[in-house]
Amino acid sequence: MPLATHAWFQQSEVSEETSCKVLLVDQAKELRLYLTALLRAVGCGVVSVDNLLAARAELGRFRPLMVVVDWRVLPTDGSPGCAALRGHPRNGDVPILVVVGDVTPAEPLEGCVQGGAEDCMLGPVRVTELRARIDALREKVPCPAPGLMSRRTPRTVLLVGEEPGTHGGLGAGLEACGHHLLYAPTAERAQALVAEYAEPIHLLLTRTPVTSAEEMRRVERLRTGSRLERAHAVVVTDGDVTEVPMPGQVWLSTRTLAPGHLLAHINGLMRCNLSTLRVDERVPFVCPVEFREVGGLSWSSCYSSALSPGALFVRTLVPARPGAVLELRIHLPTTREVLEGQGLVAWSNPYTPRRTASYPLGMGIQFLGMSPRPLMQLRELIHANSLG
């Protein structure tokens, strides 16, 4: 089955000023012709190569809007599939989209997630899906007003006292809930980040090993010095909370609260109902996923990065809106089965070129009304992956 659709489309007249270039990496001549036609139909110029090393060389010649990679050019030795592109010194941050088919094994998809590919499309490629991604990358998609935040909208958290990538850290848990994290090892760096960051900060979160009046005064000085008086201030301490916190501060102890309960408290303070996405129960899980809003006509595809008993975490440049109810098709590469069900978008992070904050692109989907058999299969997958 070809990975590009035969659907009729109208070739658009695109001027040099409004066109954009996409780097296409593909060995199959027939597929290359199909995808080239589709990309030109949505207003893109195309530069084609047949392997990842040649694609890396092209990244040294120009900066494409996006790199589209056919899964058959990916390495088969288990290494991160897009590492050659991600490691480019100047253009390694260009979004990567992988085109997959019904017969794509799980290993190349897992390598793409590990290598940082932002998106995946399941063939046959739909021109509407391609256009949505191009529009997002060309910033033609209107952003929501900054003052409008639903209970499922991720927040920006300034985390003081913890490095990014800390194993089992609060930052990793909050990122998994979709939040945008600004990491500051010191109070001085925190003040500099506040000055650099152009968007509102909703929570000042501080890690400290001890509980003391001096620590409370230090947090208050940071709040006032950074002009974050309107933001919540939460301090997570390794000791007992014996002192009465200062006004505007909430102190939580790791001695009395498990990691999942800490996250639930923090989400509650930010008025986010994200407690269903239990970070400590997630396991890595990669497969193609299709979704559409209930009552909608067109499907969109992406791929998953993690799974929990009640939720699916997917990676895509064009997620659905927070709070949307979705129909789901989960394609299992190992058995070639398709699990169907519904889900609620718990959080959503669309593409933005900003690199200041750390957060996952895509969305977290809470399962709704999944029938017993698919739920049992998902639990078996979680158990198998947790043992692996």
Please explain how this structure is put together:
The chain contains ten helices and 17 strands. The strands form three sheets. Strands 12-13-14-17-16-15 form a six-stranded antiparallel β-barrel. Strands 2-1-3-4-5 form a five-stranded parallel β-sheet. The chain has helices at residues 29-41, 52-59, 83-86, 106-115, 127-137, 170-176, 187-196, 213-225, 259-269, 372-387; strands at 20-25, 44-49, 66-70, 96-100, 119-122, 156-160, 180-184, 203-208, 232-237, 249-253, 283-284, 288-293, 300-308, 311-315, 325-331, 338-349, 362-368. The longest helix is centred in the last third of the chain and has 16 residues, at 372-387. The radius of gyration is 22 Å and the shape is globular. It has 388 residues and is an alpha/beta fold.
Could you give a quick summary of the protein structure above?
By secondary structure, the chain is α/β, with parallel strands linked by helices. Helices cover 27% and strands 26% of the residues. It has a six-stranded antiparallel β-barrel. Strands 2-1-3-4-5 form a five-stranded parallel beta sheet. A five-stranded parallel beta sheet has the order 7-6-8-9-10, with helices on both faces.
